[in-house]
Amino acid sequence: MRGLGDHLSIGERIAFHRKRRGYTQQVLAGLVGRSTDWLAKAEAGRRKPPRIDMLAELARVLRVPLGELVGQPVLMEDDRQQDDVPAVRDALMSPRRLSRLLFGPEAEAQLPSPGPTRELVEQRWDDYQAGRLGNVIAGLPGLLQTAQELEDRAARSAGERRDCWAVSARVHHLAATTLAKIGESDISWLAAERAMRAADESGDPLVLASAARAGTHALLANGRYDDAMELGHTAAVWLSARVDQNDPAALSLLGMVHLRAAIAAARRQDRSTATSLLNQAEALADQLGSDENYWQTSFGPTNVVLHRLSAELDLDNISYVVEHGQIEVDHMPPERGVSHRIDYARALALAGQGDRALAELRAAEDTSAQLVRNNPRVRDTLRDLIKQSPITGSARSSELFMMAQRCRAVQ
Description:
The protein is mainly alpha-helical. The chain has 22 helices and no strands. Among the domains are: about 70 residues, 434 Repressor (Amino-terminal Domain) (Orthogonal Bundle), CATH 1.10.260; about 150 residues, no CATH class. The protein is globular.
């Protein structure tokens, strides 16, 4: 288990770290530009949790990772406990990664070729999009080791150099995105940095654009919204000048860069920039013409709508999300559909529509239990629904409490 207990609310986490720093409520409230009454109600759960931008500011002042306030998930399979994240961390932080001169392979060592590894990493990408996070985490240590060996092979074989680095970038991108999804923000950034370095070495603009998505995921997970916006803007400008604007893969990658930057802007409470980026992505989706999945982007008109709803949720426009959030997502990869249902359920809960919120969470859980049960936003939503539930012992209360137990929202 990582971080504080999963049963703690966001307010309780803020209070824990405030006391740990020796701050009174008055002092911490002043440091983040809020009233003592605001902080007291936030810690006690008598108001809705602070927006993500305020949580990022609280995390900065309290000197803790953002994930410590929103709640770190613990990966668990449906039928058995399984947590291979330490093995992923070991693979990323092996001393052999520090120097090829010191730790390079023996001259006669047999090194893997890029083809079979490319097939394997694409299979794990399919697992990620299907919500089978346990499979991805279990496979990452071996893939990361193989990626390092491919980089060694690139130094030996000029003819395979680009392919070796491109596959390494895909492996590290998968690691960064998956680790950000399960709350491992620190090593997510390490994997993203290696993805972009490998993409640089590959010389392929599409590989670099894809790796830039990993960078934005990691920066968002760490609450670094300005940096995510800067990376998105720089990547979009660079890619636009180097690819065929009629290439559907390039359109998809460029569109996703805009969408991730738009979410960063929304979490930064910069509505005008978020809207502009969403509109640019929408134009690219219209040019693409349909929902596609080039480079595992799930990009197209539907994904733009889903990101627009997610941005409005971050911008605290709850009524808009409730009114427009009933989107057909069954044709989308499960990871995208589940992420939307979680956002929509959050908005419904904040609007006091508990029955509909619980139904969305149950539908999401039926699609991918792993994605739901390891999501801190789900736990916060379930705690809010328990507070709203007027009748203990009713069928709804029983169903709600059982789901809260499955998701570790309650002890």
